From TrEMBL:
Region annotated Disordered, chain positions: 1-26
Topological category with respect to the lipid bilayer: Multi-pass membrane protein
Species: Streptomyces lunalinharesii
Name of this protein: Sugar transferase
Membrane spanning stretches: 61-80, 92-110, 131-147, 153-173, 329-351
Residues in Bacterial sugar transferase domain copies: 323-511
PANTHER family cross-referenced by the UniProt entry: COLANIC BIOSYNTHESIS UDP-GLUCOSE LIPID CARRIER TRANSFERASE, SLL5057 PROTEIN
Keyword Transferase in record: yes
Record's subcellular location: Membrane
UniProt keyword annotations, A-Z: Membrane, Transferase, Transmembrane, Transmembrane helix
NCBIfam families linked to this entry: EPS_sugtrans
Amino acid sequence: MATDFPVPRAYGKTCEPTDDLGGSVQQGELGGPLLLARGRPENGATNRPAADWEQRYRRNVITSDTVSTAVVATAIGNFFGARDAANWHEKWGILAFGTELLVLGMLAVTRSWAPAVLGQGAEEFRRLGRSLFTATVVLALGGIALASRNIKLWIFVAVPTIALVTMTARYLLRLSLHRQRKEGRCLRPVLAAGSPDTVRDLIARTRKFPHLGWRVDAVCTTDGRGIDGDQLDEVPVVGRLTDVAGHVHRDGYRVVAVTPDPHWSPDRLQRLAWNLEGSDAEMVVAPVLMEVAGPRLHVDAVLGIPLLRVSMPTFTGGHRAVKEVVDRMGAAILLMLFAPLMVLVGLLVLVDSRGGAFYRQRRVGKDGREFTIVKFRTMVAGADRARAALADRNEGAGLLFKLRRDPRVTRVGTVLRRYSIDELPQLFNVLTGSMSLVGPRPPLPEESAAYGPDIRRRLLVKPGLTGLWQISGRSDLPWEEAVRLDLRYVEDWSLALDAVILWKTLRAVLQGQGAY
C-alpha cells in the first residue's frame, strides 16, 4: 500500500538527482523529509563554483579512499605473496591492483563522492557499502569465470578490511568537518523563504544542529517583514517571497530552504525552480506531511504528474527477520565481551550498599505486552517506596520521573548511570527476545496507560537498549522531543538507521550527556 501526495513538477522521480525532472528525496535530519531540486544552468550560464572548503573536503575523501584501498590491497597482497613468492606478481599483485581499480570504479559509479552526501547522514556510508558489496560480487564472479582458487580467500580478507579502513577514515574526516562547523566554519549559506513561524523553526534547528552544515544568513517572507521588524531571530529579512531568485543570483546562497506558507502554490514553486537555473543553489522544500522520511519516501511520475509516495511502515518481513538475528547474535557477543566487567560491577554494587546486584522492573514491550527488565541496582533498597515523597521535586519531562540529584542513588550507582553501565544486563532481555538492541525507550506500565493513540504507536516495535533518544540527549530531552524521536524511529526504521544509532551510542555513552 502507498499514499500519494502531489508535489510540484520541479521535483524529480527517484532518490537520485539524475532523472529528467532534476529532483530527489533526502532524509531530513533537521526533522522530516526534504525535497531537493537543483538549479540547472541555462545555455551559456555559468554556475558559481563550490566553496573552497567543499572542494577541499571532497578531494580529501577521494584521496582517503584511494590511499586506504591501495594500502590495504597491497599489504594483504604482500602478506599472501610472501608464502608464494614465485607467483606473487602473477597472482596476488595483479589481484591487489585489480581490486583497487574495481573498488574505486564502483565508488565513482555509485556517486559515493557526490558533494550532496558527504559529511552528513547515513547515505554516505550506505553508498560506500553498496560500492564495496558490488565490488565483492564482481570479484566473486570473476573468480568463478577464471576458476581461481585464490579469490575466495581474498574476498573474505581483503574486501572486509578495505571496508573497515575506508569507513573509519571517512568517519574521522567527518568528525573533523563537524568540529569545524561547530566553530562556525565550513557552513553553507542558506536563504530561507516561507512564513515567519516556519522559518523561525528552521533557524532554531540549524543552530541546534550545526554539524549538518546549514547557516541561515537571510530570510524572505510574504510581506518582507519578520516578527522583529526587519529581522527574524537576529537573521535579516532581505525581501519578499517573490524576490528569492534575485537574491540568490546576486548574493550566491548555496541553499534555498522553502518552508510552508500559503504563498507557495505548485506554479510558484515551479517558477522559482526555473528562476534558480544558472545558479549553484540547491532548492530544498519541506512538504507539509507527517514526520516521515528515509526509505519510505519516493517521488514517482504517475500519468505525467510527480507524486510523493509514502509507503507503509514495515513491521514484518525479511528486514525484520534480519534485525532479529542481528539482535540475538549481537547480544550474545556483547555479553561474552562484557562478562568480566559485569561480574566486577555486580560485586561493587553488593559492597557499596545493601540489596541485590540486580534490579528488576516491569516494563511494557511490543504490542503492549509486559516483561521484566533487568538492570544493575543503582539505588538504595526500597527506593520505589520513597518515590512518592519526592514527587514534588520531579524534574522529568512529561510522564517521566527524573531527579538530577536523586538522594536514592548510591555512590556506585552514580557512576553506573553516567556511563549507562547499569543497562548492560538488558542484553539478557535482547537475547531472550523481549527487547531489541535499537528501538524506543521501554515505558513503565503507568506511563503506557496514559498514552494517547499517537504515542501508543511506540509499542508497535520492540523497545530498545538504545535509540534516537539515547544519542540525542536522553533525560535532557523535552517529553515532546523524546516522543517525536521514538515515533520517527517507528515510522522510518531501517537497518542502516540501526547501524548509525549503534555507532553514535558509543560516543553518547562516553560523554555521559543527559544521564542521571
